[in-house]
Amino acid sequence: MTRRSDPGAGKTAPDAVSVDDYKTAMRHVVSPVVVVTWLHDGKPEGLTITAICSATTEPPTLVVCLRGDKPAAERMRAAGRFGVNFLSDEQPDIARRFSSNPGHDGEAFDPGLWTVTPGGVPLLDRAVSRFDCVVEQAFEQGSHVVFLGRVTDLATAPGASLLYRDGFFRRLGTE
Ligand SMILES: Cc1cc2nc3c(=O)[nH]c(=O)nc-3n(C[C@H](O)[C@H](O)[C@H](O)COP(=O)(O)O)c2cc1C
């Protein structure tokens, strides 16, 4: 089994793998693509992420990880609520829009596509699955802030999930 290309690079503890090897291994993994959203000073903000999955079913809870060195994590923590929008394979443009600075201001939110819930969370009408979450926990773990969000509302729309692997957005294929 090939484990490491350079066993010494970036190690911090005797049983640690290198950050580069970890990133390379994770590039092989297929992820769904999500735009997480929140309100900051009453304005919608959002970010494209792939570090998202179900944490627990009872209660329905999602786990989301945001880089700790960007303003987004602190703003989402301050909002106390966030939206999770699983994009469809017809929405790679939205993924691109929210993966750079414009996603942090209201201009990225096309008013024809988004609805702000009564709780104050922007949700994308055509997202294949969308969730309104309240922050149950937010804690720092290394480079990221880990959010546990309890789901307080949800909706679905027809379509297949947009995927990401090895630097490219992708569509689901059948065997
Ligand atoms: C496919 C993809 C997945 C990403 N996943 C995450 C993620 O899980 N967590 C995160 O904090 N940022 C993630 N990002 C990065 C953010 O979308 C954004 O690009 C980054 O925070 C840069 O923001 P800046 O414009 O403020 O520098 C991802 C970006 C892309 C394109």
TrEMBL record:
The UniProt entry, under SMART domains, shows: Flavin_Reduct
| UniProt-listed InterPro entries | Flavin_Rdtase-like_dom, NADH-dep_flavin_reductase, Split_barrel_FMN-bd
Q: Which GO terms describe its molecular function?
A: FMN binding; riboflavin reductase (NADPH) activity
Q: Pfam families under this entry?
A: Flavin_Reduct (PF01613)
Q: Where is the Flavin reductase like domain?
A: 26-171
Keywords, ordered alphabetically: Oxidoreductase
Q: Does the keyword Protease apply?
A: no
- Identify the SUPFAM superfamilies for this entry: FMN-binding split barrel
Q: Which family does it belong to?
A: Belongs to the non-flavoprotein flavin reductase family.
What protein is this chain from?
Flavin reductase
Which organism encodes this protein? Pararhodobacter marinus
